[in-house]
């Protein structure tokens, strides 16, 4: 067994049970978390690649990338580290089932609706990566796993983001343009020419080829050697699956051919458009799955506008980036009008409160002036508005006299006379100067004099 023997303890907590598979970069083991009793899959980088800092960096980046993609269609990563022997490793969920490559080899051509549904699941997982500015670059049937689930239908999961590329350019140095990464059978023409200059539409090209293979049970391109295969992919027009399987609907055939177009600009603008084009040929939930692909692209985005250099293409980036909302002239004008309106309302409220206070003071003065023992004071001092306001001393004296009046034999007559006089004083109109004072106050606080 490459990298670890049975019962070996990795990172002090994962006991190796058996080998699940191997590939060019390393080996995948089944292990048990000794503390939790949980079965996991451990991917070990082989010793040869472990000596390359660039390969190790890419390998460990897979863990971070997969961990940031919250989708059930991406294999979940739970841990990352280095073994006791110095081999980098990634700990992932243990999947039960088989990959799409084995599924096609076992069953042959898949029913049209089933193939479309599986492709829509793959699109959802890859779209989540695209929304995080990641391009997978190594999509193939062997990296699409059909995982069994208890009491639920199986689910397709995208594996192996170790060759993924970040569009931000932060790790541009990890892949030299002279090196070709990925599987030639599923590469796009632009990826064959330069691994660095690929975008999300390169993954779309690979997914189109995989859908073709699910329907035809054979790859769209074939050649006697890898070199000839690369030439065919780069120069030959995309084949139509209806030539191999006539029962495939024409609309689906055209959508697959467009996804495999030689020029990236001739393909669908993004995976959401590709998913929408093939959804009518899927099962009952296909259109809903296509909407989930669009939602995956639009929900997870960069919070800041990208500052990366543009790819050497004449098309706009296919990964949606949320741009800050621009304040147009109409928006600014509307905001200013709203602010002015609020200020005007505040001013009117302040004026109304002030005027009400003045009127209340004057009315209160009039009422107090008419509650006394000698109501004629208001009429006699009408030439002076301030004379209508009784002093605290006068008020106390009036109260004392009122008490004395209640004790005298003539209290009844006096009370009757006072009541009549008070009624007359209430019927009397306010003096002219009081009216003028009210008007002056209103004008002072911004009111209009009528």
CATH A-level architecture of the largest domain: Orthogonal Bundle
CATH class of the largest domain: Mainly Alpha
Topology-level CATH name of the largest domain: Transferase(Phosphotransferase), domain 1
Percent range for helical residues? 40-55%
Fourth CATH level, the homologous superfamily of the largest domain: Transferase(Phosphotransferase) domain 1
Could you describe the largest sheet, including whether it forms a barrel? Answer: 6 strands, antiparallel
Strand order of the largest sheet: 1-2-3-4-6-5
Poorly predicted runs are 167-181, 300-340, 366-431, 444-450
Average pLDDT, to the nearest integer?
Answer: 73
Number of E-state strands: 11
Q: Please state the structural category.
A: alpha+beta
- The radius of gyration is 43 Å
Structure in words:
The chain is α+β, with helices and mostly antiparallel strands and 450 residues long. Helix 4 packs parallel to helix 10. The chain contains 15 helices and eleven strands. Residues 167-181, 300-340, 366-431 and 444-450 have low confidence and may be disordered. It has helices spanning 47-50, 53-67, 100-107, 112-131, 189-193, 200-216, 226-235, 250-259, 271-278, 286-299, 329-370, 376-380, 392-407, 411-427, 432-444; strands at 9-10, 14-22, 26-33, 38-45, 77-82, 88-93, 97-99, 134-135, 144-149, 152-158, 165-166. It has three domains: 1-94, Phosphorylase Kinase, domain 1; 96-167 and 183-305 and 312-323, Orthogonal Bundle (Transferase(Phosphotransferase), domain 1); 329-444, no CATH class. The longest helix has 42 residues, at 329-370. It has a six-stranded antiparallel β-sheet with strand order 1-2-3-4-6-5. A three-stranded antiparallel β-sheet has the order 7-9-10. A two-stranded antiparallel ribbon has the order 8-11.
